Amino acid sequence: MDLNAKKIALRKIPHGVFIVGVKQDGRLNAFTGTWLTQVSFIPPLVVLGLKKDTISYQMVAKDRVFSVNVLGKDQKSVAEHFVKPASVAGEKLQGVAYHLGKTGAPVLDEAIAYFECEVREILAGGDHAAVIGEVVEAGVRQDVDALTLKDTGWQYGG
Questions:
Q1: Residue 70 pLDDT level (bands cut at 50, 70, 90)
Q2: Which of 39, 107, 140, 150 has the most CB atoms less than 10 A away?
Q3: Cα(147)–Cα(82) distance, rounded to whole angstroms?
């Protein structure tokens, strides 16, 4: 296989940019995620790609809930804030306005929309796990275009 062609081809998959909130035993975290898609209407299911060697993965695997905070096209700076691992950035939610949602996961007050999920299954085949979550709560604050990976100029994938 032409590895460069594979990388370029896989990077053609369009991705949104989201802040994923997680919790475990009273601890909270959030990170920038891009590998997310809806996979079922009934029940409403999404699948999230989550790197397995992270604190957030451990938190999701234990408490089995997460929130997805949708950002608007003008909120790249919010995504940048949550890119670094918690071990590097410290408490990433400090100074960020949020509240705990129905699942107890953090929901950002400045997100244009959000939904909360309960984990139904985790498929841990590669360096990332496919986390299947059922949407149990949702809200919309602004019906505007969402931030995409292309909007940021970043590349993740391939």
A1: very high
A2: 107
A3: 14
